Predict the structure.
Amino acid sequence: MREIRLAARPNGWPTAETFEIAEAPTPEPGPGQVLVRNLVMSVDPYMRGRMDDVKSYVPPFQLGAPLEGAAVGEVVASEAPEVPVGAYVVHGLGWREYAAVDAARARVVPAADNLTAYLGVLGMTGLTAYVGLLDIARFAEGETVFVSGAAGAVGSVAGQIARLRGAKRVIGSAGSADKVRHLVDELGFDAAFNYKDGPVRRQLREAAPDGIDVYFDNVGGDHLEAAIGSLRKYGRVALCGAIAAYNETSAPSAPRNLGLAIGKELTLRGFIVSNHNRRMPDFLAEVGPWVRDGRLKARETVVEGLENAPAAFIGLLRGENTGKMLVRLR
Amino acid sequence: MREIRLAARPNGWPTAETFEIAEAPTPEPGPGQVLVRNLVMSVDPYMRGRMDDVKSYVPPFQLGAPLEGAAVGEVVASEAPEVPVGAYVVHGLGWREYAAVDAARARVVPAADNLTAYLGVLGMTGLTAYVGLLDIARFAEGETVFVSGAAGAVGSVAGQIARLRGAKRVIGSAGSADKVRHLVDELGFDAAFNYKDGPVRRQLREAAPDGIDVYFDNVGGDHLEAAIGSLRKYGRVALCGAIAAYNETSAPSAPRNLGLAIGKELTLRGFIVSNHNRRMPDFLAEVGPWVRDGRLKARETVVEGLENAPAAFIGLLRGENTGKMLVRLR
């Protein structure tokens, strides 16, 4: 079987040399494990942080070892009676064709033609949007919400949940005119702008002349500074990601206006979705029906072939995806 | 009578030209008002913001009009039966020798030889420390707390409340060796450092090698950045003040490490004490006895004479005070 390993730690942007594709023996499942043939894997911005050798909330990837990440696959051998051969499971050992997975760390999902949803809108990605908007930013009906990276996997779901939960106004930023159209025409955002068209601060002020109540931050930097400027009294920020900084080799210079948080009594709160898994049932109960009846749309950008996973990951960091970025292995 | 007026809006640091002392007719109390002879007035860092002509949580001071701020005085004439002549009241019309005050906006306090406490440790200043530490930063027993501006009126109370509430370790920063000694020797801080002695980040790391759980921010800037670096998982920041920036004419540099708030799941929350007045009874019930029995100490820096109030205010911004900065009018 084949797997993608970390060949070198990137200094700034990852490149082809960051990765190597290698042959490895297909693993044998031990007691309590299942052998999974991976069908689709996820690439996510947080993986960039694990490529650096720094202490963080997840340990760094090891040089020469296969990368890890969410994947969905079919059980082809089982040493765990509760997860039989033929079951479909979501687990954490992507970036390889076969994985021996502890049954306790595999979540069985219904066999269906939309298996990829369990990596995106109905998986950790969707849960991130749900928890960030509702639990962290404490969004309430009637409020105005700004989402950055709004055409991405998390942002597109966050904005749509806000709309379906009765937001007064939902505003998104994205990195191309096509994405901006997608947000407004297909996802029902009230306004959207291309952050490459001009200062975020000015564009946000034009899109939200009365200010915003909630900011769902996937970007950091000047997006966060603009949002702090536009937030109204008692505004809240869910700090979910800071993709603007992930590949920078110098420290970001924004937000320079954090002092406004005092007088406006703002709350900025960071979060990691893995500490909020207990909300998965609530999330699926509320968002699942919206996905099934089409009121919440989840586009995917699918790249074919494990060998193209590094390019998919680099493309994700460059914003080449709309919605969830996935790699199909077979 | 005499009053201090705003003569010119400062550009950067206020100077003697910012103020003018003027004669004015002693006001007549209207129905429901009392005439107060001010005895002591407060100068506070937040007043610097009101000197700029910008929208904020309190309206700006008006050019040519007397400044405002907390004061304590004696009622010398009353058109409000509930506040008789001879009562002592705390109110918001300082910077002048006599004020006509709506009785509804005057708080009667017991006549005592420590009237000044109602402007400081037992007034809004102490309440700010109490609310910021307990309600905003949600300090809990056994945690490590860092307070910047720790020898100031708010910081010194915040640090002592943390100690009396069972902090594992209380660390303070201040701007002179004398203040550092005061924090450790008299106020019971476990460690303190002079921020002028070297990078805050390094000094904080040495004082709190295992990190901090709560940061009470009176300073902003590099103090906030250092605290974000030292905060442990689930740490909280009470954003109370940003005195490092109040007199700067360019935007402060960011905390360049705010992205750490994601992985550490930090919460940063700004607050204004005037929205938390409902906590005054709890505050007085808990902190009052500590002040009376000497377990919580509140030093004051008292300047004599209304004519010296501008110098007292500028000195406050320069850190010339230890504890509460007050001006005695008679």
User: Anything to note?
Assistant: Chain B has two domains: 2-120+298-328, 124-274. The longest strand of chain B covers residues 33-42. Residues 124-274 of chain B form a domain with the Rossmann fold fold (CATH 3.40.50.720).
